Protein: Methyltransferase domain-containing protein
Amino acid sequence: MHDHGDHEHSHDHGGDGDGFDEEMHDVDWGRVRERQVARGEHVETWFDDAGIDAGDDVLEVGCGPGYVTERLAERVGEDGRVVAFDRQLGALASFTGDVPENVSLVLGDAESLPIAPCEPVTALVAYVLHHADRPARVLAELAGALPSGSRVFVAEYAPDADSEVGPPTHYRIAAGTIDGWLADAGFDVTDEFGYENATYAYLASVA
Ligand SMILES: C[S@@+](CC[C@H](N)C(=O)[O-])C[C@H]1O[C@@H](n2cnc3c(N)ncnc32)[C@H](O)[C@@H]1O
Structure:
């Protein structure tokens, strides 16, 4: 079960038998992609709220099996670029079809960021932090690596709103906790969004 009281996650799942695979070592990535497609209508809302436009550079943290990445590639177009990374080779290997020309795939752990962009980017961190071992560390790494003018958009499931999709409520991270981690990492939180599917997001900038 998560302990969000400090910045480490314990891996004591307490035998709760909820079947949630926090580390996603044994997931069927095809099914994860199906879930990405099923919640696809929200993706354009994220991009709008994050201010992602044609020609932008985006760092997609914890991209999973690629559906969001493909939509991002369409949004930024041929003048933009998406660097998508994930710590699970299975996620990157399950990208279907050709990887779009404006997308680069990188295998790496966001807790030890494998990328240091030279130009400002928007970092998209969607539904990742409840899977991370040290979620606050992910945000601290981004704050340290992203150049001034960059933004980070973090989307998570709300623990106080049950929903058919998403992790069990005790794995979810409270909005106030994310807000605090962003501030601790040195980001300026500029906006907060609540969505109908029991999720929320924060937009923050690198000072
Ligand atoms: C639920 S999927 C979300 C995929 C995608 N962002 C989306 O919105 O559909 C979570 C992904 O985050 C990845 N992930 C979790 N912790 C990570 C970390 N520390 N570094 C890189 N990837 C991570 C997992 O491997 C998984 O592919």
User: Anything to note?
Assistant: Residues 29-206 form a domain with the Rossmann fold fold (CATH 3.40.50.150). Residues 1-17 have pLDDT under 50 and may be disordered. The longest helix spans residues 135-145.
